[in-house]
Amino acid sequence: MLCSALRFALGLVFTVLLGKGPMIEILDQVLRGAVFEPEIIQMLASAFEDAWERIEKSGSRFARPAYARAMREVIARRVVEMAQQGVTDPQALADDAIRFVRANYRDDVSGKS
Prior knowledge:
By secondary structure, the protein is mainly α. It has 5 helices and no strands.
C-alpha cells in the first residue's frame, strides 16, 4: 500500500488531471509497493497531459464527454505502469500511452483509434 502522503499527492495530481474524484483505488492497484519521488510524479503528470492533449486534438470520439473519463483512466494507468517498468522519459510515456490506446480501443466513428 502507498504511504498516506504519497497517496494524497498522487490523488491530488490525478484528480486535477482527470477532472474527477480521487483515483486512489486505481493507484493502489497499479502502484502496489511502488514509491515515486515528487519529480517522478511531475513527470507522470506531464506525460499524461501530453497524451490526453493529443487525443483531444485528434478529434477522436474518446475525447467526448461520454468516453473521456474512462479513456483518461486508461491513459493514466498505462503511464504509471510503464513508469514502473522503468520508462522515465515523458515523451516516451505519452507515445506509449497513445500506441496502447490505438492498439486496444477502436474509434469506430471517426475511423481513428
